[in-house]
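Record type: ASSEMBLY
Status: queued
Input:
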Amino acid sequence: MSQVAQGKGRAGFIAGFLILPLALYLTFVIWPYVQTFGYSFTNWSGQSPTFDFVGLDNYSALMKDEVFRGALWHNLLLLVFVPTITILLALFFAFMVNAGGRSGAGGVRGVRGSSVYKIVYFFPQVLSLAILAVLFGAVYRSDEGGLLNGFLTKLGLVDPAHPVEWLNQPNLVLWCLLLVVVWHGVGFYLVLFSAAMQSVPKDIYEAALLDGAGRAQTFLRVTLPLLWDSVQTSAVYLGIAAMDMFVLVSTMTSGQFGGGPDHHSEVMATVLMRNFLYFGKSGYACAMGVVMLVLTMVLSVVTLRATRRERIEF
Amino acid sequence: MTAESTVIKAPGEASAERSGTGGRPGQGAKSGSDGMVLNVFSHGFLAVWAILIVLPLIWLALGSFKTDAQIGGSALSWPSNWHFDAFSRAWDKGIGDYFAHTLIVMVFSVPLTMLLGSMAAYVLARYPFPGNRLFYYFFVSGAMFPVFLALVPLFFMVKRLDMLNTYQGLILVYVAYSMPFTVFFMHSFFRTLPTAVYEAAVIDGASDTRIFFQVMLPMAKPGLISVGIFNVLGQWNQYILPSVLMQPQTGSDPERYMLTQGLIQLQYQMGYETDLPVLFAGVTIAMIPMLVVYLSFQRQIQAGLTSATLK
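Status: finished
Output:
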């Protein structure tokens, strides 16, 4: 076969293999993302085929929208707390699982049954958010039938006549949701960090032990710097999850598409969805989508920049 | 912290310990007891979290065997009624149908995702051509953004194609949204396959298409299994896409809810009808297949996760 003929066949083959995946991806993913920008400058209702170009009107209306501003603030709160708490807990447990055991000949080793812990911890990750919503809806029930209230009553911490209204208390609801996200995420990041810890050569730990480093020192001076790449990636993923929150808020809290009581658990995604499907303000909802898109990108860049360290090769 | 400070050892001690045989329990009196303190300490924390994971799930499953009054009355009561009638009622309330709808979609969407994703990833991983990197980043960048940023136009796109509340519409959307992760994962997998096999196949006169299906794809089987499981989990648990795209469009349009959507539906319904055991039974039914898939493939899941995220 001549070189040229082969090259020609290749081009056809490459195009043939790319065309279908690319067409689907363009139609259903990329094109809608692009369109979101276009629609955000219109007063489109979604019902009628006609709409007018209104410039930045939607964006200036957004600035004045108290509900959206509250939602933005809640997203920012979650953005700080979700990654911090999840990563710290996951790192702590990963270190316990991998280095919490007896010091044996290998210097540092995992606890017994570490694989069992990893299996159990990861389990919430395979449950759908819809299941989590029903499960924690039951846990947070505002009478003695809720698992949390039931326990606290049993311990005498809660008066059975006045159980805590977890999801209806304006200053509690967001933190209750935060706990669900942490409960869900810790296992995933534990497995991730533990894999990273295991890829660190054992002799680095041995050397640290020989030099007289304790566990806290080993962790801070050896493990954490070597894991920095994974921690950084995790912070970005968790940040993106904290920008979302739609499923939990819309199914666990009161109100049309959630956000209650009185907008105290509102996040941008629920405001967007309400404006789109309930108020029929498609253009306005698209403007919210654009704001979220920009925030997500800024967030990723800032996280990667702020946590940048010199990469350690091993 | 006392537990941590007790572990700091003099260098001599550590090397003495190193000369011991294996890390078996009760080896040196001193280092053994040091290890013990920390072991109890770490097991303590680990066990508490494990209980926090397992307890709510077991509690919920037990709820299927309670009566509604019992569920509302006290959280810590033991179920009185060990019959499976709540399960059969949940099945009749639609869990069975939701299950079937989800299966119908996934029987097509998962294989299609794997096939199209692997094809694109293979070409991008092994054939240098102008714009190759660009296409790759283009495919992978979709993973960066939450789905609902594109939701409004996506809804109208599917509507224009007349595919709202149809299986084929949801299947195509699932495939498209699974593409970034699948391409990313399979790309790194195809890169690791040896070139020698490819060259041997070319010399034997196999065409590129044939090499892909008969040589490369079978060799990539471990990667395909991992990414396949992730796609099964991801598409099975998807909630936002079906809740926007799978709503009956007219009065006569049949309801084709996915399982996740159906559970939330059941939650509203059972709140009115005050039949919570049915809801708990429904959630338990939805949970079991995932538990089975997870326990049978947990090795591949953890290995796949590691190779995907740690390059």
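Annotation: Chain A touches chain B through 114 residues (CB under 8 Å).
Annotation: Confidence is low (pLDDT under 50) at residues 1-6 of chain A.
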